[in-house]
Amino acid sequence: MDMTNSIVNYRRHLKRRNLSSHTVKNYIHTLKLFVLWLDVPIEKLDHRKVLEYVDHLFDRRLVAKTINCHLNSIRRFYDYLYHEEKIRLTNPVKSDYMLKLPQPLPRALKEEEVATFFKVVKGRRDRAMFMLMLRCGLRVEEVFYLTVDGIDLDRQRLMVRNGKGRKDRVVYISNDANDALGNYLKVRQGKNVQEIFLVEKGTFKGKPISVRGIQKRMEYYARRSGVKVSCHHLRHTMATQMLNADAELATIQDILGHNWITTTQRYCKVSNLKVQRDYFKAMEKIAKRDQRRSQIEEKTGR
């Protein structure tokens, strides 16, 4: 089997499925690492060799999530060979080889942490970026992809393009986030650039700020404020705050762009305020019901 041609064809197959360039790059990179490690023809690969590779990845001190990514790349490639190239090979990656991952609850910031963080965010661009994450629940990549023609300040809404899974969606902008974005647009340079957020200094001034550039700004303000915060923490905070304000799960799911309601339901586990309200509300009803029963029993002599 010509492995080089198969990998080239596999790359084309992934692109035809309209996967993001980042996803395609990761699949091909992890697959190439495996092929370089392999000391037998790929058509001779068996389950035991896959387990040896898992041990090799452990020896490299890779975490379980990364090892699963490697296994997933190999499994998908064999699925491609079987279904697309009609090479009848048994997939050597069994489903139970995937490592069990811990599922930490999403961490939301407290109100005082949010206030402390935004106290040190002075620049109009940076304040607008982080307010959109906090109030609209945008991922950092979605902030990067925002364009001028996707913003409607008058109607307080924006179009999120190239969201996770290459999906577009409409989200709404709160008054304070709308003001922050409007204030930035008044001073924004680069009229011929579609991307909203631009580099403001240095060699790349006027070019779109990168995802890593946004993250570095977040890290800078986190150090200055002393708040343990990331871009994704702001997104989690928005979801938790909405849930505590009695927003429906389906509404939060739509705003965040989650495929499955179960993903959104994870916020219920950290939304202690809503749980607390629901608990005491239910206990109050139970207490009143028990009190009425006792009163009836006293009157009837039971």
Please describe what this structure looks like.
58% of the residues lie in helices and 3% in strands. The chain is mainly α. The protein folds into two domains: 3-97, DNA polymerase, domain 1 (Orthogonal Bundle); 111-274, Intergrase catalytic core (hpI Integrase, Chain A). Strands 1-2-3 form a three-stranded antiparallel sheet. The N and C termini lie far apart (87 Å). The model has no long low-confidence stretch (mean pLDDT 87).
Could you provide a short overview of the structure?
With 302 residues, the protein is mainly α.
Keywords, separated by commas or semicolons:
hpI Integrase, Chain A, single chain, 302 residues, DNA polymerase, domain 1, 3 strands, mainly alpha, 3-stranded antiparallel β-sheet, 2 domains, 58% helix
What does the secondary structure layout of this molecule look like, with pairings?
Elements (H helix, E strand, L loop, with lengths): L2 H14 L4 H17 L9 H13 L4 H20 L27 H9 L4 H13 L3 H6 L5 E2 L4 E4 L8 E4 L2 H13 L23 H15 L5 H14 L4 H8 L4 H5 L6 H29 L2
Antiparallel strand pairs: 1-2, 2-3
Question: What is the top-level CATH class of the largest domain?
Answer: Mainly Alpha
> What is CATH's topology name of the largest domain?
hpI Integrase, Chain A
> SS-based structural class?
mainly alpha
Largest sheet: 3 strands, antiparallel
Contiguous low-pLDDT stretches (5 residues minimum) are none
Helix amount: 55-70%
Can you count the helices? 13
Shape: globular
CA radius of gyration: 26 Å
Strand order of the largest sheet: 1-2-3
Mean pLDDT: 87
Give the second-level CATH assignment, the architecture of the largest domain: Orthogonal Bundle
Number of domains: 2
CATH superfamily of the largest domain: Intergrase catalytic core
What's the total number of strands?
Answer: 3
